[in-house]
Amino acid sequence: MPNNEDNRELSLQLFVVLARAYNSVTSRSNRDIQSHGLNTTEFGVLDLLYHKGPQALQKIGEKVLMSSGNITYVVDKLQNKNLLIRRASKEDRRVIYAELTEEGRHLFTQIFPQHHQVIIDAVDGLEPSEKADAIRLLKKLGLAAEGKTDLRL
């Protein structure tokens, strides 16, 4: 059983290795996204709208982890690129929805399969069973870091 000092060192080493792995994988993803003239936030909004359909602007912020001011900026940029439009809700005119335009849907249909492959390639250094183990362990680590007590997975 490792002593307290060994555990502290392992914790620091885990943090560094985890951060470097995250940076390597996201760097590949970001380069691919940028090659299509988008930033990661724009891509995240397009991804959400493509897979989930029209969304209220407030919900986009929750799902893509953006502030309300940033949502407006990103939606404006995507609207200026003719990739999405805003529509007022029929039930509540205070609620504005964003939805993909035909051009936005076409673009995402073209770029998503390639991006999906970039992600697959970026994590291809692990065998399938190792990926399953990593998912389980990283979920456990994330829950513990959030202070959640039920760590059963």
Helix/strand layout:
Blueprint: H1 4-34, H2 40-52, E1 55-56, H3 57-64, H4 68-80, E2 84-88, E3 96-100, H5 102-122, H6 128-145
Helix pairs in contact: 1-5, 3-4
Structure overview:
The chain is mainly α. The chain has a single domain, classed as Winged helix-like DNA-binding domain superfamily/Winged helix DNA-binding domain (Arc Repressor Mutant, subunit A, Orthogonal Bundle), CATH 1.10.10.10. It contains six helices and three strands. The protein has helices spanning 4-34, 40-52, 57-64, 68-80, 102-122, 128-145, and strands spanning 55-56, 84-88, 96-100. The protein has a three-stranded antiparallel β-sheet with strand order 1-3-2. Helix 1 runs antiparallel to helix 5 and helix 3 (57-64) crosses helix 4 (68-80). The radius of gyration is 20 Å and the shape is globular. The mean pLDDT is 93.
The side-by-side strand order for the widest beta sheet comes to 1-3-2
Shape: globular
Instruction: Count up the helices.
Output: 6
The percent of residues in helical segments reads: 55-70%
- For the terminal residues, how far apart are their CA atoms? 24 Å
Series of secondary-structure elements, N-terminal to C-terminal? HHEHHEEHH
Beta-strand portion reads 5-15%
* Unreliable stretches: none
CATH architecture: Orthogonal Bundle
Specify Rg, calculated over alpha carbons.
Answer: 20 Å
Highest CATH level, the class:
Mainly Alpha
The number of distinct β-strands equals 3
Largest sheet: 3 strands, antiparallel
